[in-house]
């Protein structure tokens, strides 16, 4: 493995670690909304990717020109197959939502621990009365 690849993997690991730590920190806040910021951002990126594929494919066409003895005999334009374009957009959307799902699992885990902590504090406060 080259030095560049090792450095890239190290930086990628650090970036992912910071991202997960930030998600855990935001999820443990008293309000539930800060923990939904990062999953919302990754969801928006996946929507932009899927829309980009759909819009780019709508304006992309394949042109075929047939030339016989220096004369253009046939010039045809073929649009992309609609089913394959939609399948590509759906695949990109699902693939790019893997980080969203991971962040939501982190969010749900932190919020459930926080909820248990609050209910335990509430019970102990009721026991003291």
Short description:
With 129 residues, this protein is an alpha+beta fold.
Describe this structure in words.
By secondary structure, this protein is an alpha+beta fold. Among the domains are: 50-96, no CATH class; 97-129. It is built from 4 helices and 2 strands, in the order ααββαα. The chain has helices at 3-27, 37-58, 82-96, 98-128; strands at 61-68, 71-79. It has a two-stranded antiparallel ribbon with strand order 1-2. Helix 1 (3-27) packs parallel to helix 4 (98-128), helix 2 (37-58) runs antiparallel to helix 3 (82-96) and helix 2 runs antiparallel to helix 4. The protein is elongated, with a radius of gyration of 25 Å. It starts with a helix and ends with a helix. The mean pLDDT is 86.
Structural topology:
Elements: H1 3-27, H2 37-58, E1 61-68, E2 71-79, H3 82-96, H4 98-128
Antiparallel strand pairs: 1-2
Helix pairs in contact: 1-4, 2-3, 2-4
Largest sheet: 2 strands, antiparallel
Order of helices and strands: HHEEHH
How many angstroms separate the termini?
65 Å
Number of helices: 4
Global shape? elongated
The total strand number stands at: 2
Specify Rg, calculated over alpha carbons.
25 Å
């Amino acid at each position: 493995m080259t030095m560049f690849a090792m450095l890239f993997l190290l930086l990628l690991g650090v970036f992912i670690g910071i991202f997960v730590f930030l998600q855990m920190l935001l999820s443990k806040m008293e309000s539930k909304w800060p923990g939904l910021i990062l999953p919302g951002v990754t969801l928006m990126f996946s929507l932009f990717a899927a829309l980009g594929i759909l819009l780019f494919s709508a304006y992309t066409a394949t042109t075929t020109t047939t030339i016989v003895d220096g004369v253009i005999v046939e010039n045809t334009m073929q649009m992309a197959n609609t089913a394959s374009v939609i399948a590509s957009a759906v695949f990109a959307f699902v693939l790019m939502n893997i980080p969203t799902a991971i962040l939501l699992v982190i969010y749900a885990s932190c919020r459930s621990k926080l909820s248990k902590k609050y209910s335990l504090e509430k019970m102990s406060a009721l026991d003291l009365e």
